Amino acid sequence: MFYGSVVWDPWLIVAQIVCLQCLYYLTLGVFVSIFVGTRVSHMSLVYFFDFATVTASTVTGWCVIASVLLTSVAGAGYMFHLIERAKKCLDFSATVYIIHLFICIVYGGWPSSITWWVVNGTGLALMALLGEYLCIRRELREIPIPRYRSNV
């Protein structure tokens, strides 16, 4: 962890974005498999990218909602380990969800469901705020300084 004057490294930023996005979809896949996979006979990408599956009117829709929100919590943990700076958490969270929005638009069209927007907005806020909280706790830890010199 280097907190001094940071040199702008676009390759590091791109690598962090790609890694965070891959971990987001990997975790979403695990949660969707656990929650939705037990309820439906055929799993598909519809549960990842189609806004119509994010609904509060069915139990399967609630399972998709729970998967998205739990993935946001996991994403905060990923940011804690990958990004390590509280001031960057909102940027990386927004990037993950903007890329997700673009993929959803390509897959199923513009999300016209208010539930989709509320769930993903809540997921974005949850990922950013929890990631910032975790990173701030690390940044504010006391630096251990030994009292006595060792005789080396």
* Spans of at least 5 consecutive residues with low confidence: none
Overall structural class, as computed from helix and strand content, comes to: mainly alpha
Strand content: under 5%
The tally of structural domains comes to: 1
Helix content range: 55-70%
Largest sheet: none
Contiguous helical run count: 5
* Shape label: elongated
Mean pLDDT, all residues:
92
Q: What radius of gyration results from the CA coordinates?
A: 19 Å
Distance between the termini: 27 Å
SSE order: HHHHH
Quantity of strands, as a count: 0
Membrane topology: Multi-pass membrane protein
GO biological process, one term: Golgi to endosome transport
Organism: Citrus clementina
Keywords: Golgi apparatus, Membrane, Protein transport, Transmembrane, Transmembrane helix, Transport
